[in-house]
TrEMBL record:
Keywords, alphabetical: Dioxygenase, Iron, Metal-binding, Oxidoreductase
Protein name: 2OGFeDO JBP1/TET oxygenase domain-containing protein
InterPro entries named among the record's database cross-references: 2OGFeDO_JBP1/TET_oxygenase_dom
Organism: viral metagenome
Cytoplasm is among the record's keywords: no
Cofactor(s) demanded: Fe(2+)
């Protein structure tokens, strides 16, 4: 059911179409947009939940065309290189596909849903790590202590490597923060206070510590983990070329959002969510043939989406929960040891 306000923002309050057990059983699998309500206009969406205050909880607030083309171009120039190949995205990376370019080069063993081990072709030894499909996904900004790598809380390696580009893109991140503050002020206040209590790990002038940057990554059903429990994920995308699909779905409530360049969504990332497949129509293919290849992008990595001629870069801005335990002295000593100056 939807009602239209004077400012044309529709409000939806939706019943779940899957039980908690039913949706949990689909973790790590893909959904498509068939039979779902796909929202492509300004909307506030609530899900009925008898355990929530008032019997409902906010799923998302979605707004179209809130970022200018000048700002999104500045963001593209800053961030288009910042999604590196990753094999550790868990259920979000989707079911292991033995026919993919990456896995065809390896001898799979112990495949289980969204993770697998493999044998080294030279030594015939089984890998110790359980890995996922390779996707383009990196954390930009701050990350908590990583004991097995003997690293303290810090700016991530990719952020350090592209530090000038990161700083160039901060006005875009600040604009995302302002939309969050405008649409969900109570959650923004909690999130800002949480990260501002450890300002050495705060992205300046925002309620964020970190940004997950994905490229051409169709996520399978998952819930975000490792972020502030009372916070929200704040999403937007940048695009180059033409494509269809890529909608952000909340399958338990039968709803999705057509998030495109310039749009914004503040969403409860602790609810089950995923993306639909991205694809080209014949018209898209004709247009994309006119694009100059991006020299930085390597198409033979075997990572999902690496061969696509179009680009969809998604941003998820949030606070990492474990940063509350960080020790600034250890971080400063680490920066000094590696010769890095954090002047962001």
């Amino acid at each position: 059911m939807a009602k239209t306000r004077k400012n044309r923002i529709k409000t939806y309050t939706l019943d779940p179409v899957l039980t908690n057990d039913q949706i949990k059983a689909r973790e790590g699998t893909y959904f498509d947009a068939k039979d779902y309500l796909i929202i492509d206009h300004d909307a506030d969406v609530w899900g009925k939940d008898p355990e929530a205050p008032g019997g409902k909880r906010l799923l998302a607030k979605f707004r179209k065309n809130v970022f200018s083309t000048d700002l999104t171009q500045q963001a593209w120039d800053a961030f288009y290189r910042l999604a590196a190949a990753s094999r550790s995205r868990g259920a979000a990376a989707g079911p292991i596909n033995p026919k993919s370019e990456y896995w065809k080069k390896r001898k799979l063993v112990n495949t289980n849903g969204w993770w697998a081990q493999y044998k080294d072709k030279k030594t015939n030894k089984t890998s110790k790590m359980r890995v996922n499909n390779t996707v383009f996904s990196s954390v930009v900004g701050y990350f908590e202590e990583t004991p097995f790598m003997k690293l303290p809380c810090r700016l991530t390696n990719y952020t350090q490597t592209f530090f000038d580009e990161y700083k160039q893109g901060l006005p875009f991140i600040e604009a995302i923060d302002q939309e969050f503050k405008k649409l969900v002020p109570d959650a923004h206040k909690k999130q800002y206070q949480r990260i501002h209590s450890t300002p050495a790990y705060q992205i300046k002038n925002t309620a964020f510590s970190s940004i997950t940057v994905n490229r051409n990554f169709r996520t399978a059903l998952h819930q975000d983990a490792g972020d502030f429990k009372d916070g929200y994920g704040n999403l937007t995308v940048l695009e180059r070329g033409k494509y269809h699909g890529g909608e952000t779905l909340f399958p338990q409530f039968g709803v999705g959002f057509d998030l495109r360049s310039g749009d914004f969504i503040a969403m409860d990332v602790h609810q089950w969510h995923c993306n639909t497949a991205m694809f080209e129509t014949p018209e898209d293919k004709q247009f994309n043939k006119t694009l100059e290849p991006i020299k930085y992008y390597k198409t033979k990595t075997g990572a999902m989406g690496s061969a696509d001629p179009f680009t969809r870069i998604s941003f998820v801005c949030y606070v990492r929960e474990d940063l509350k335990d960080c020790k600034k002295g250890e971080t400063d000593a680490y920066y000094k040891r590696i010769g890095f100056v954090n002047n962001s």
